[in-house]
From TrEMBL:
Enzyme class of the recorded protein, top EC level: hydrolase
One Gene Ontology molecular-function label: beta-glucosidase activity
Family: Belongs to the glycosyl hydrolase 3 family.
SMART domains reported for this sequence: Fn3_like
The protein's name: Probable beta-glucosidase G
PANTHER family in the record: BETA-GLUCOSIDASE, BETA-GLUCOSIDASE G-RELATED
Pfam families in the cross-refs: Fn3-like, Glyco_hydro_3, Glyco_hydro_3_C
Catalytic activity: Hydrolysis of terminal, non-reducing beta-D-glucosyl residues with release of beta-D-glucose
Annotated localization: Secreted
Tagged with keyword Glycoprotein: yes
InterPro entries, sorted: Cellulose_deg_GH3 (IPR050288), Fn3-like (IPR026891), GH (IPR017853), Glyco_hydro_3_C (IPR002772), Glyco_hydro_3_C_sf (IPR036881), Glyco_hydro_3_N (IPR001764), Glyco_hydro_3_N_sf (IPR036962), Ig-like_fold (IPR013783)
GO BP annotations, alphabetical order: cellulose catabolic process
Length: 790
């Protein structure tokens, strides 16, 4: 009882400190005018090309460049053939080009996060980018760092990486660089505080009154230290675009909030690209434009006659009647066109794939503009499938392995159980959530290899767990008995097995999709009973979880459950990825990018919802106060010193590792407490924030008998002045070692890594006094300690 009260006390004190009483948020501070693009950060030459292009445009054409229209893609900017501009094709999503055939379905952001593997994250971005480009898509609508994962129930958390802002920051940076390395624009989304699906958009009550979208109310310190942090990495990586979100922030809609767009993104972070709206997230015209919105999506989407848009012809009218300056419109155009020229998209870009429009919601046309449509092309490559298989395995976390169960030693009689083991039973696009209810991806029998909604993919095939295990078994003459109908299992179906398998592998799934939040953190479809009943029969039961995370595991201490694998969302090679781990071809090197609590009620739900809200008549009723500040996921469990089932950063290997010899090198002692305000602002913010001020190194050795990989992690504990969490991740590196070998790892620490956000100074500030340094293998296994004075 004491601990929750403790947390409540903390929340109350944060609330007092920042005056968080949602009625007091009311407004977001006005920040005007909208900062203009300067071309800094290496975009100067492209800006000049964009300026030359702009000089040729009429006002109507300028409006056209910043307003979506009906076309073959999910988002379309119409062409201007006079200028050889073929328009822009924008396509979902963060793990595949969704609206296409002959494409790969990659591992989700969640699996990428669980891999803690920078090179794999970069490679994934580059391979996905290559597929978008091959299909003629100029803009990939991803990666995702909003939601960050404030609530473990968040329906879209899996599209992004981790509730830890540092881990998400590193991985979004790698992803943006990967996608853009092949000449495709990344659109980092959803900006910002888009932390719940419930009431993400306005609704209408029974009397026709508009009930506004949920307002995420957050203080300035939490904004910088937790939610804005990974967006800063994305901007630093050169993201061409940022998508503003559906929710309100301090009462003001995400796509018309001048503080977040003009203030934080364009001014403080020096963002040079364009802000596009999420689909139908624009609620005003001139006001949104002045607040920093550069592109309306999907815009005026009628086919032959455009439907209304706050942009389009309204921009022309507003310029002509003097309410909107031509300067601002010109800046919008320059922000859209500069990344296009910077990534050489004006030179021989592939045409839009010939199948694209058949799958889109605009239908086959005709459209208001003619687009360049090419042949139907296959953009898959053998190395893409291999990467997906590797990343699926690398993003699998081994949580329990008693009795030396894993890796398997050629068992001759294998049992496979659970509805997630089975092949798809509703086809390759069945995970997409259809409004018609025909294709609700949360159906019973069929494996869950990624999540649903706009972030899903159209599978070319899926390797189901059962298919891969049968193939393995056949290769050495093993029998596989399987039952994939959970209801049949819970009704007693296991009684039919003969003989009892040497090993029973149970596959469970946890559904999540855009448009709804999770209602439980326990895998669906009677999973607890399925595990209980299997374990009652089989004293060597391995449980594998696919789908959304975190999940609680009521059966985790059952002695007959000898191994547990959190296998996340591996993508099309799902079965091969898990077989590689089960048979030990690949050492499990995944680590938890979130906390697994003992039980569901141990989490702070951090989700606003109720029956009363569902029927409210108060337009302003949906308020979500982020009173917990930075204390989400492990930072919250650490703050109340609560026991957990498996902590953030945890994961087992088939070998053992030792960590030793922590060394701290300060490159610049007595550095000024804040960055020089006169230093240039480049994409990512004041350049001094990214200077390395210290480097920590450790030695890691493989002390076991097989080759493997591990992820040494570095956490910092700041002095009281910083008002920071107990510990914060500030370094990690995956390292592969053969038995008996060791290596030295360096963790460079930038000024931002070592600072806290001082709300009075409005600056990242180095604390005075020593910063405690911890290194080890998880957030709670930190054998090495030191103190850093900078
Ligand atoms: C939201 O309101 C809080 C409290 O007044 C303030 O600290 C913060 O800067 C505001 N943020 C935005 C984006 O409006
Ligand atoms: C458009 O392309 C054609 C053919 O390559 C070229 O002759 C012409 O100069 C280009 N026009 C512009 C405005 O770039
Ligand atoms: C301009 O915006 C208004 C809403 O403010 C809308 O009713 C109107 O249809 C828009 N005009 C065009 C041409 O889209
Ligand atoms: C100017 O045009 C805009 C866009 O149509 C409109 O919203 C606004 O009311 C107009 N203002 C005046 C003064 O006519
Ligand atoms: C599109 O192409 C068709 C056929 O060539 C032509 O009739 C039509 O005018 C074109 N539409 C536009 C908007 O250019
Ligand atoms: C596995 O280990 C647990 C605890 O160490 C033990 O209780 C159980 O009997 C073992 N099971 C088998 C099949 O050896
Ligand atoms: C759970 O099992 C019960 C009893 O076997 C069955 O009636 C129910 O439909 C099952 N629920 C799900 C979600 O499978
Ligand atoms: C599963 O087993 C646990 C522990 O034996 C028990 O508490 C729980 O009620 C069982 N749940 C189901 C659904 O069978
Ligand atoms: C473990 O398995 C054995 C059969 O090997 C069974 O007798 C026992 O009841 C099982 N225990 C649990 C907790 O399911
Ligand atoms: C586990 O089950 C096997 C056969 O099902 C049996 O031979 C063995 O004794 C059991 N071990 C334990 C510890 O229950
Ligand atoms: C939100 O509340 C409604 C109404 O009480 C309920 O139907 C829905 O399941 C809830 N959503 C979540 C994610 O808890
Ligand atoms: C709708 O309006 C009626 C009459 O004014 C009122 O009694 C009722 O409470 C309203 N209901 C809602 C949902 O706003």
């Amino acid at each position: 009882m004491l601990r929750p009260l403790c947390l409540f006390g903390y929340a109350a004190s944060v609330a007092a400190q920042f005056g968080i009483e949602h009625t007091q948020y009311g407004t977001s501070p006005p920040v005007y005018p909208s900062p203009q693009i300067s071309g800094t950060g290496g975009w100067g030459a492209a800006l000049e090309k964009a300026q030359a292009f702009l000089a040729e445009l009429t006002t109507e054409e300028k409006a056209q460049i910043v307003t979506g229209t009906a076309g073959p893609c999910v988002g379309n900017i119409g062409p201007i053939s006079r200028l050889n501009f073929t328009g822009l094709c924008l396509q979902d999503g963060p793990l595949a080009i969704r609206q296409a055939i002959y494409v790969s379905v990659f591992s989700a952001g969640l699996s990428t996060a669980a891999s803690w593997d920078r090179p794999l994250a970069r490679q994934r971005g580059a391979y996905m980018g290559a597929e978008f480009k091959g299909k003629g898509a100029h803009v990939a609508l991803g990666p995702v760092v909003g939601p960050l994962g404030r609530s473990p129930f968040g329906g879209r958390n899996w599209e992004g990486f981790s509730p830890d802002s540092y881990l998400s920051g590193v991985l979004v940076e790698e992803s943006v660089m990967g996608i853009q390395s092949v000449g495709v624009q990344a659109c980092t989304k959803h900006y910002i505080l888009n932390e719940q699906e419930t009431q993400r958009n306005p609704s209408v009550d029974s009397n026709g009154t508009q009930i506004e979208a949920v307002s995420s109310n957050v203080d300035d310190k939490t904004m910088h230290e937790t939610y804005l942090w990974p967006f800063a990495n994305a901007v630093r990586a050169g993201t061409a675009s940022v998508m503003c979100s559906y929710n309100r922030i301090n009462g003001s809609y995400g796509c018309q909030n001048s503080k977040t767009m003009n203030g934080l993104l364009k001014d403080e972070l020096g963002f040079q690209g364009y802000v596009m709206s999420d689909w139908l997230a624009t609620h005003t015209g001139v006001a949104a434009i002045e607040a920093g919105l550069d592109m309306d999506m999907p815009g005026g989407i009628g086919f032959t006659t455009p439907t209304p848009t706050y942009f389009g012809a309204n921009i022309t009218t507003a310029v002509n009647n003097g309410t909107l300056s031509m300067d601002r419109v010109d800046d919008m155009v320059l922000r859209v066109m500069t990344p296009y020229f910077h990534l050489n998209q004006d030179a021989d870009y592939p045409p839009i794939d010939g199948y694209t429009q058949r799958l889109g919601f605009f239908g086959p046309g005709p459209y208001p503009f003619n687009y360049t449509i090419g042949n139907i092309v296959d953009v898959r490559q053998a190395q893409h499938a291999q990467l997906i298989r590797d990343l699926g395995a690398a993003g699998t976390v081994l949580l329990k392995n008693s009795n030396g169960t894993l890796p398997l030693k050629a068992p001759k009689n294998i049992g496979v159980f659970g509805n997630d083991a089975a092949d798809f039973t509703r086809g390759e696009y069945s995970l997409a959530l259809s409004g018609a209810g025909l294709a609700d991806g949360n159906y019973d029998i069929g494996t869950l290899a990624v999540g649903g909604g706009s972030g899903t993919g159209r599978f070319p095939y899926v390797v189901s767990p059962l298919e891969a295990i049968k193939a393995r078994g056949r290769s050495y003459g093993a029998d596989v008995q399987y039952i994939t109908d959970n209801q049949f299992i819970t009704a007693g179906g296991l009684a039919a097995l003969a003989p009892t398998p040497e090993v029973c592998i149970v596959f469970l799934k946890s559904w999540a999709s855009e448009g709804a939040d999770r209602t439980t953190l326990i895998a669906e479809w009677n999973s607890t009973a399925v595990v209980n009943m299997t374990a009652a029969l089989c004293n060597n039961t391995i449980v594998v979880l696919h789908g959304a995370a975190p999940n609680t595991m009521p059966w985790r201490n059952n002695p007959n459950v000898t191994a547990i694998l959190a296998a996340h969302m591996p993508g099309q090679e799902s079965g091969n990825s898990i077989a590689d781990i089960l048979w030990g071809d690949v050492d499990p090197s995944g680590r938890l990018p979130y906390t697994v609590a003992n039980g569901e009620s141990d989490y702070s739900k951090n989700l606003v919802n109720s029956t009363a809200l569902a029927t409210t008549t108060d337009p302003n009723a949906w308020q979500s106060d982020f009173v917990e500040g930075n204390l989400i996921d492990y930072k919250e469990f650490d703050a109340r010193n609560a026991s957990v089932a498996f902590e953030f950063g945890f994961g087992l290997s088939y070998t053992t590792f030792n960590i030793s010899n922590l060394q701290i090198q300060v490159s610049s002692s007595n550095a000024s407490r804040t960055p020089n305000p006169a230093a240039p602002i480049q994409p990512g913010g004041n350049v001094e924030l990214w200077a390395t001020l210290a480097t920590v190194s450790v030695n890691v050795s493989n002390t076991g008998t097989v080759s493997g990989a591990t992820v040494p992690q570095l956490y910092l504990s700041y002095p009281k002045e910083a008002n920071a969490p107990v510990r914060s991740l500030r370094g990690f590196e995956k390292v592969a070692l053969s038995p008996g070998t060791s290596g030295t790892l360096n963790f460079p620490l930038t000024r931002r890594d070592l600072s806290y956000w001082d709300t009075t100074a409005q600056q990242w500030t180095l604390p005075t006094g020593g910063i405690k340094v911890y290194a080890g293998f998880s957030s709670r296994n930190l054998p090495l300690q030191g103190t850093l004075n900078v």
